[in-house]
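Quick one:
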Amino acid sequence: MYKSIQISNFSYAPYIAAREVRAYKEKIDSAYLEPLKAYLLDDSNEIFSADRIQEKLFPTIKDNNIFLSHAHKDEDDVIKLAIYLEKYGLNVFVDSLVWENARNLLKVIDEEYCWQESSKTYNYYQRNHTTANIYMILNTALHKMIDQSELFLFLGSERAVKVKDVLNSPNKESVRSPWIYSELVFANQVQRKDKIRTSITQESTYKNESASIAMDGRPIQFDYDKPDLDYSLSQYNFKNWLNTLPGNHTDYSRELFIPNIEDSRKIQAGKLLDSLYKEVENNGNPRQ
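Output:
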């Protein structure tokens, strides 16, 4: 990872048709969740490989440009942003699509291995065991994805970030999601790497958001102090940067014949990231 940025008060979503959002979700589901279900329901497997689970549930992305971290309730807006950025050649990883798959995955595991037909209930200890293992495997894999991405971009909407007043720290920000907290802590601590710019010529979804657990009593919530990232950028300046993309850069979602299109896409992706870094350095707030 080269840099981490928080977009403050994120609320912007470019216009993307609802059918494109559905297709984006279905693409991830069919590509990764379905093969993983087949692996986990294979009766010949008595011991499951953590590495194989990671390989099947997480996309194998090379040269990933942006890791998008966000609140689950912002998912559709974030997918629209991802589709928009990908049109201009950027490779984007949306974390919630994987966590949503994880919830579906746990449902499959619970039905197959934890359900007790005699009592019509789930085995409490077995379910805790499977849940703990799956979450640990996925959390580790998410950290690998962050490390492999050039930019960690946290979309700090009011759904993702809470502001609280504490002694000696007025207006301190916090998060309620353990997944967001884990990603932010790792992004805060991971070793920074140089940008990779290849010189290429043009010729050659259980619905439990965050740590809130729906039970018979009132929901249980946990509060985590939010780690600071390298920079924060206002929603206003981020939107201004996004608005520079149309007209000035190639839209790769169109059916255009471009020689060496993959090389062209990589060159443009690097230029776009550099322009975002310049925007952040000129108008963002560095970590104190």
